[in-house]
Amino acid sequence: MALQANTAGVSGYGRPVMEPVRHPWAESRATVAVPGASLLVVGVGPDGARPLLVAHGGPGEAHDVLRPHFDRLASARRQVVYWDQRGGGASALDEGAPFGAWSDHVADLEAVRRHLAAERVDVLGFSWGALLALLHALDHPERVGRLVLVSPPALASAGPPPAGGSRPPGG
Fold first, then answer.
1. C-alpha span between 40 and 63 (Å, rounded)
2. What are the distances in angstroms from CA 137 to CA 9, 24, 82, 120?
3. What is the pLDDT of residues 93-134, one digit of tens each?
């Protein structure tokens, strides 16, 4: 028996995505303005529940490829919150704005936390998002309850640090 991908939905990169999980909660959507971009923020689960911020891979990817998998973590006590990172998915850059350095992406993650009015959040990062989650936790340890890194990139720097940040990803 051959397995077939579910083509009911397709990500922005042409990859099949799974059917969304059916929840008793309405999906919430908001836009968070940050310097140089407007970020799409999507929540699954009850408002006021403990937030789990999910940082997708990329850069340039979108949150939708993670939804079928991580929506399942939403519960009466847990709200799963995604955002499209600047320049990816539905988070458009302002006209003439640069894509931004990793430090801008980390600041965006903090802006999403502030938007939720949550003192502390749990953060799950996938691939590039795992690097952002780790750097955010290092910069704001008092704001992170739990940290989950899924398939993180190598954290050793092989060259000079990237421009625009105070700490290189491996330094």
1. 10
2. 33, 31, 17, 11
3. 999 999 889 999 999 999 999 999 999 999 999 999 999 999
